[in-house]
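[scheduler] slot 2 assigned
[scheduler] job type: sequence-to-structure, two independent chains
[scheduler] chain ordering preserved from manifest
[runner] begin chain α
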Amino acid sequence: MVPDQRSRPHPVVSAAWLRDAARARTLSVLTLVWLGLESTLGLAAGLAAHSVALIGWGLSSLVEALASLIVVWRFTGARTLSPHAEGRARRAVAVSFWVLAPYLVVHVLHDLDEGYRATPTVLGIAVTAVSLVSMPALGLAKRRLGARLGSAATRGEGAQNLMCAAVAGGVLAGLWLNTLGWWWVDPAVAVGLAAVAVREGARAWRGHDCCH
């Protein structure tokens, strides 16, 4: 039985393909552990600092965790070779991109209306700096595995990891620039994250590769 792959069908399921599927599952499990910690620390720091970008980044970590959970589901047991599991996983990853955008926009509008301004936070700086360094390696590894597996779901998860790293950099810049009076950078980063999430969700739904 051959998995239903949108981008690169496999005429046979080889031993190498099965090893890559196991690697994708293992990377997703490891990512789940880190994202649970990252999200908790990011949200705590963001709420303490009134940073909508940092809060949004913490929430995006939860969305990433959902994508990782979907990939673990996709490559577990009989679903590894299911002709339908990849399509369901790909669409579920796309929806996981979309759930973030409305919250970010509403939260930005609320904070602007209330006059909240982000303040520097040591915890926020530390956790985003770690993600800025670690997430690109995870994201690129998953994109390569996704390409070999023909799995848009795995590539989509990797794209979320890369997006997490990019946003971590934006959050760090926003926290620093806010000390110079550029308070608008923080909400701008949050709105930018919402726009990227919508775009990447659409690409993941269609099974297209995600580019950054």
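[runner] end chain α
[runner] begin chain β
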Amino acid sequence: MFGGGGMNPRKMKQMMEQMGIDVTELDAEEVVIKTAGEELVFSDAQVTRMDAQGQQTYQVVGEPESRERGAGESGSGSEGDAEEAGSDDGVPADDVELVAERAGVDSDAAREALEAADGDLAAAISRLE
């Protein structure tokens, strides 16, 4: 990290501009980070975007609320039931849906292909094409 603990913020901004780094504060209402098993929801976060050499970097500062993946989403009840039924055989329902969509087959064929390919999405899709 930088040791600029006592540096004047205006001087720091001037130095960053000289290096071609543009910093912008974003007025974000909510930030959601989705991981495999949970969602981290920042309701009142401070978000900063840095543009440097064609790359954008985002910094999120705040206290997240952790919730189970999909808990905040609204949709039809039958879709949630299908996901629960799909998890019994160890194949995630999202993977089945993705393979079915990409290969243009029904969910049963997609599930069988995923089981045969040991969960490898690309192998299951190529098997069906």
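[runner] end chain β
[qc] chain β: The CA atoms of residues 38 and 69 lie 4 Å apart.
[scheduler] slot 2 released
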